[in-house]
Amino acid sequence: AFKMAKNWSQAGAAFSRAAQLQLQLQSKHEAASLLVDAGNAFKKADPQEAVNCLLRAIEIYTDMGRFTIAAKHHVAIAEIYESDLGDIHKAIAHYEQAADYYKGEESTSSANKCLLKVAAFAAQLEQFPRAIDIYEQVGAVAMDSPLLKYSAKEHFFRAALCHFCVDMLNCKLAVQRYEEMFPAFSDCRECKLLKKLLDAHEEQNVDAFTDAVREFDSISRLEPALTALLLRVKRSIPGEEQDLR
C-alpha cells in the first residue's frame, strides 16, 4: 500500500520489518527477497538506507551460496554509489566484488562488464596502470571469441589511450603489441587514429592532433571519458600550453 502511494520511506521500512520477521521464522530466502524490495523502495528516498538493506540481503545470499544473485546486488549498490551518492571509490569496490563473484560462477561476460566499469573509473582517477591491466585482459579474452571479437579493438584503443597518458613511447609499443596479437586491430579506425596522434605528438603538432580527433569524432562520436583522456594527452604536447594562452 505504501509503495502504491509512492511513500517510499515507509514502504522500505515495512519491507525491512517483514524481512526481520521472516528471519525469525528461519525463512532466509523470503527475508533476502524482502530486503531487496526494501532496498528498491529506499532507493527513491534514502539511497544510503537502500545500500544497507541490499548489503543485508547479500549477506544472506552469500550464506546460502547464491553468488550470482549476490553479484547482481553488488552491481545495484555500485550504481547507487555512482549515481546517487557520488562515491566512486565505493562504487569501484562493489563492481570489483561483483566481478569476483561472477568469475567464480563462470559468468565471464558479466564479470567483464563490471571490470570495464572499474577500468573506466580507474582512468578517471588517473590510476592508469590499473585501467590498462583490465582493458588488456578483457581485450585478450574478447579477441579469442567469435562473438566478442569486434569489441576487442575498443578495449585495446582505451588501453592505448591510458598508455599515452603515462608516456608516448609506452603507447607506441603497446599499439605494436596489439597489432601483433590481434592483426584485425591494424585496419580499424581506432588504430589509425592512434598512429596519427602519435605522429602529431612526436612532431609537436597540436593542429594535426586536433584535426585527427575531429575527423574521427565526425564519424563515430567519442564519449566524454575518451575525450577527457585525449585532452590530457593533447596538453602534454610541448608548446600546447603556450598555444592555449
UniProtKB/TrEMBL annotation:
Cross-referenced Gene3D superfamilies: Tetratricopeptide repeat domain
Signal peptide range in chain numbering: none
Keyword set includes Mitochondrion: no
Biological process according to GO: intracellular protein transport; regulation of synaptic vesicle priming; SNARE complex disassembly; synaptic transmission, glutamatergic
Any one Gene Ontology cellular component term annotated for this protein: vacuolar membrane
Any one GO MF annotation of this record: soluble NSF attachment protein activity
CDD domains, sorted: SNAP
Transport among keywords: yes
Pfam families referenced in this protein's UniProt entry, alphabetically: SNAP
Location of this chain's protein in the cell: Membrane
Function summary: Required for vesicular transport between the endoplasmic reticulum and the Golgi apparatus.
UniProt record similarity statement: Belongs to the SNAP family.
Protein name, as recorded: NSF attachment protein alpha
